[in-house]
Amino acid sequence: MDTALGITLPPMHPFLGMDMTSLLDERVRRDGEHPFLGGVCGLSLFAGYVGDPAATAEAFGDDGWLRTGDRVTVLPGGALRFAERAKDMLKVSGENVAAAEIERVVASVPGVREAAVVARKDSVRGEVAVAFVTVTADAGQAALDEAALEEAIIAVCRQRLADFKVPRAAYVVPDLPRVTLDKISKGVLRQWAADRHAAENDPTRQVASR
Length: 210
Prior knowledge:
The protein is of the alpha+beta class. The chain contains 6 helices and 9 strands; from the N terminus they run αββαββββαββααβα.
């Protein structure tokens, strides 16, 4: 897995007790560069969502396989390399766009410590990319001009990405919201992106300081 910090995690095999044969032979479907995992089955899975049969039905197939929504690469020998969550894919003008691809470019900009890209609704393209970044310690100590960094991010993306993949906005924030110590909350960022866009287009509306 290539993270926004440029860290590559090693490929992994399913846990002991997982149905690896069915996973590789029947439960992987290809969609562009990476296949989607159709599901996993094994002793480590939970039985369902308490008090929410609709969510359980959506998450599990009739055969008991959990639909993970992961995009993976199947390597020789059966190891799986995680690529991205399907729900983190953007749909820009009908094109599938991987947030991770944009995040790698954004994270390469000097001064950026960590980057996360999410979709924002757009009346013309359906969705557009929006980037949120934190700055490196050195950049912060140097009183980095946040507006200049945001402009630099867009400029670098225009040089290295197709136009429809270029973020339509970039924001410097003190910290990225997380659901765990290492997992960024993309749901919160999507709300931030919507709120900031609304505020920018309505001078009477203010966005709470992040």
